[in-house]
Structures are given as structure tokens and as C-alpha cells.
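Customer escalation, tier 2.

The customer says the design service returned an amino acid string that "doesn't look like it belongs to this structure." They asked us to rerun it and document both sides in this ticket. The original C-alpha cells are below, unchanged.
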């Protein structure tokens, strides 16, 4: 049985730049061998739930201002149309063909560099309530028994306007939010987490919610939370990874 994971993907440069989160994801992938991967990325937001049935998802370079080496990166993992259509039926999701955005392919390129495991993308319906997103995760839990690794890809904190250069101390307003979330995840306090906007400094850490919401889906798909990794980049980007067994 595969776990459900929440992965903080940070900057697209995570794919090329060694560091604590980069190195951890490389090691994490060596411990996993799923039959397929279902990923919900903060970078595919929709009004209604959608699922990609693409047999060969393209690598989407949905960013700008980075070195050419990043645009040259390709992640040619196959899709799994039959599995995607099953999810479409079970979840009442709209089937479409879409590639892998950087919230999907960047962490996967570190975890599974051979790109030999089929990947299905599920959209993030941002107009759904927090409770609905947790319930969506619950509907994905059964797929874990079939060898499907469920991944919510976002960022535990995501205020790009306050990023700082180099290795700098983590501000208290970041630590307060991170500690609040961690305590409630470990305590299994899903009621509180479904009202995460009330956490200390929630709005400052997430001026918009889309990078936090994949955590709710991942949490719904699993059980007890366990933090696998903690690090901070550019002062305010918390790169935590959680498993929900």
C-alpha cells in the first residue's frame, strides 16, 4: 500500500539546485516504487474537478525568468489513460488532456528520475470548500491499496513577495504558522486544519490559498501525519514534506 504525500515544491530551480529539499526528494524516491502516481498540483487550478487522460503528458514550463537549462528539462513519464478514466467516473471529474506542470514534474524528476512510472494529474478545484477537498482526498484513499502514490504538491508557506536572497533566518511570522500546522497535523486535528485560515499569520504565509490546499487533499487520502522533511529556502519558503499513512 502506498502512502499519501504532501510535497512542498518551492521554486522550479529545485529541479537543478542541490540543497536539503532537493537531496531529500532524491532519497525519498529510492524508498518508493508505486505502480502509478496521482498528483494534485497547486499549478492546475480549475472551477470544476478535471483529470488528465493524456497518454504522453508534455512537460509544461509554466514559469519565466529562469536559466535555459531549466527550460531544457523534460520529464517524459507516460500517462495512464485507463486509470484516469476510472478516476473521472468515480470522482465525476471532467476528462481532458493536459501535461505536467512544474508542481508535478519538478519533484517527480528528483524522486523518479527514470520517468518510468505512469503519472495522472488531477486538478485543484479552488472554489471547493476545505471540507470538500479533504473529502476528495478520502475518495482517493482506496487507490493507494492498488499501488497508486497520491501526491499533493504545493508549499507549506508561499509568500513570494517576501523571499530573501541567500541563507537568512526564518522570520517569526513563518515559524508561527508552520508550528501551528505541524502541531495539528501530528495531533490529527482535521477540524482545525479545515479552518487553517485562522492559524497565526495564515494570510501572510499564503496571500492566495492554492499552494496550501493540496495538503488538504493529501491529508484526506491518508491517515496519521508524519513530517518527513523540514527546511526553509530564501527565508520564507518552507519546504516540508509530510506522509499520511
Amino acid at each position: 500500500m502506498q502512502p499519501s504525500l504532501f510535497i512542498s515544491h518551492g521554486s522550479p530551480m529545485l529541479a537543478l539546485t542541490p540543497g536539503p529539499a532537493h537531496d531529500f526528494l532524491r532519497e525519498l524516491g529510492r524508498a518508493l516504487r508505486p505502480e502509478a502516481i496521482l498528483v494534485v498540483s497547486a499549478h492546475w487550478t480549475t472551477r470544476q474537478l478535471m483529470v488528465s487522460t493524456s497518454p504522453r503528458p508534455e512537460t509544461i514550463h509554466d514559469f519565466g525568468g529562469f536559466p535555459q537549462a531549466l527550460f531544457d528539462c523534460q520529464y517524459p513519464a507516460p500517462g495512464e489513460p485507463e486509470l484516469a478514466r476510472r478516476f473521472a467516473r468515480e470522482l465525476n471529474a471532467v476528462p481532458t488532456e493536459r501535461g505536467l506542470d512544474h508542481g508535478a514534474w519538478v519533484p517527480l524528476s528528483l524522486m523518479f528520475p527514470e520517468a518510468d512510472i505512469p503519472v495522472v494529474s488531477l486538478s485543484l478545484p479552488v472554489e471547493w470548500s476545505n471540507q470538500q477537498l479533504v473529502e476528495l482526498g478520502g475518495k482517493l484513499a482506496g487507490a493507494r491499496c492498488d499501488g497508486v502514490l497520491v501526491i499533493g504538491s504545493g508549499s507549506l508557506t508561499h509568500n513570494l513577495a517576501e523571499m530573501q536572497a541567500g541563507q537568512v533566518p526564518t522570520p517569526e511570522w513563518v515559524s508561527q504558522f508552520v508550528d501551528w500546522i505541524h502541531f495539528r497535523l501530528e495531533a490529527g486535528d482535521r477540524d482545525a486544519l479545515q479552518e487553517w485560515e485562522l492559524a497565526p499569520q495564515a494570510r501572510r504565509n499564503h496571500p492566495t490559498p492554492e499552494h496550501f490546499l493540496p495538503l488538504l487533499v493529501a491529508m484526506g487520502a491518508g491517515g496519521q501525519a508524519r513530517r518527513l522533511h523540514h527546511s526553509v529556502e530564501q527565508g520564507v519558503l518552507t519546504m516540508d514534506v509530510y506522509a499520511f499513512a
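Tier 2 assessment: The sequence is consistent with the input. The mean pLDDT is 97. The longest helix spans residues 172-187. Sent an explanation to the customer and offered a walkthrough call.
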